[in-house]
């Protein structure tokens, strides 16, 4: 598969593009402070402020600056362009809720539907609506999305079109899943080349394993992983290559925990795989633990 010249690996592999945060349950909008208020904080408000809270689930507006980042694709949202967002729990602690933003075209309506945020909304292609549901998304958006009513007709239609497309399914034969996996694997291999200190060249599948591990270490939400393969397939040399590849970014030494029977094997293989004096190795076992 040919890799498009415009393909952005950093954004494609970004955790933000694949691991969306769930909407915060029961939040309300405070027009006085212009903040989203979580359920546990609502009970701490004075009655006048609590009575003024508004029941919005989503928000849309024109970006006030070019600083906000789309949490789906990872790109900046240009100033004055249409954006869409929903409140999530503040990751910094018990500080309430914050809004996360998306390009209008990136609005994750399917994700929000699965997580119950679009409750009460069905489209014309769905089964018979239940009591309390509405078939007109424009009506539902007006009642549940802060800022929607004030949009121009063109911007309203842009969001509605994204919503309508959420159930479109491509035929399986049209989806080149294998080709996509191959493309991503090749991009990773090209991005994370073996360290210069390695004196034994890696086989193709070992380079892919190294690239995968390097990428895992850069992904905060899912750092680490399990490298599992049959004996003799080169797990040790891949691990050694990873240690050297991440050496500059890693503070302090790397601890290798292994069975006693494998301690000297690790020691000798590290020296065999690397150029002399590339890595200082200390065996923390027996009387050597006191050194």
UniProtKB/TrEMBL annotation:
Residue ranges occupied by any PARP-type domain in the UniProt entry: 58-159
Swiss-Prot/TrEMBL keywords: ATP-binding, Hydrolase, Metal-binding, Nucleotide-binding, Nucleus, Zinc, Zinc-finger
Principal place of residence: nucleus
GO terms (BP aspect): nucleotide-excision repair
Transmembrane segments: none
Domain of life: Eukaryota
One GO term describing the cellular component: nucleus
GO molecular function per UniProt: ATP binding; ATP-dependent activity, acting on DNA; DNA binding; hydrolase activity; zinc ion binding
Subcellular location: Nucleus
Protein name: PARP-type domain-containing protein
Lineage, opening ranks: Eukaryota, Sar, Alveolata, Perkinsozoa, Perkinsea
């Amino acid at each position: 598969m040919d890799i498009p010249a415009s393909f952005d690996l950093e954004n494609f592999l970004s955790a933000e593009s694949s691991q969306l945060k769930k909407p915060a349950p029961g939040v309300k909008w405070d027009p006085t402070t212009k903040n989203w208020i979580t359920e546990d904080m609502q009970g701490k408000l004075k009655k006048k402020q609590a009575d003024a809270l508004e029941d919005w689930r989503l928000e849309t507006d024109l970006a006030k600056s070019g600083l906000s980042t789309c949490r789906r694709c990872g790109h900046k949202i240009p100033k004055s362009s249409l954006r869409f967002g929903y409140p999530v729990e503040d990751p910094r602690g018990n500080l309430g809720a914050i809004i996360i933003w998306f390009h209008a075209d990136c609005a994750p309506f399917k994700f929000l539907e699965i997580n119950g945020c679009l409750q009460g909304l069905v489209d014309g292609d769905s089964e018979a609506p239940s009591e309390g549901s509405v078939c007109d998304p424009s009506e539902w958006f007006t009642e549940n999305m802060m800022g929607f009513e004030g949009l121009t007709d063109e911007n309203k239609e842009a969001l509605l079109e994204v919503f309508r497309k959420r159930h479109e399914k491509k035929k399986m034969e049209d989806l080149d899943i294998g080709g996509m996996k191959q493309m991503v694997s090749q991009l990773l291999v090209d991005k994370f080349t073996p360290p210069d200190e390695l004196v034994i060249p890696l086989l193709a599948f070992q380079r892919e394993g190294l690239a995968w591990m390097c990428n895992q270490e850069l992904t905060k939400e899912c750092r680490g992983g399990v490298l599992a393969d049959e004996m003799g397939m080169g797990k040790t040399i891949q691990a050694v290559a990873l240690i050297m590849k991440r050496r500059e970014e890693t503070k302090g030494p790397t601890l290798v925990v292994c069975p006693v029977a494998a301690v000297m094997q690790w020691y000798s293989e590290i020296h065999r795989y690397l150029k002399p004096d590339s890595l200082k190795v200390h065996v923390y076992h027996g009387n050597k633990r006191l050194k």
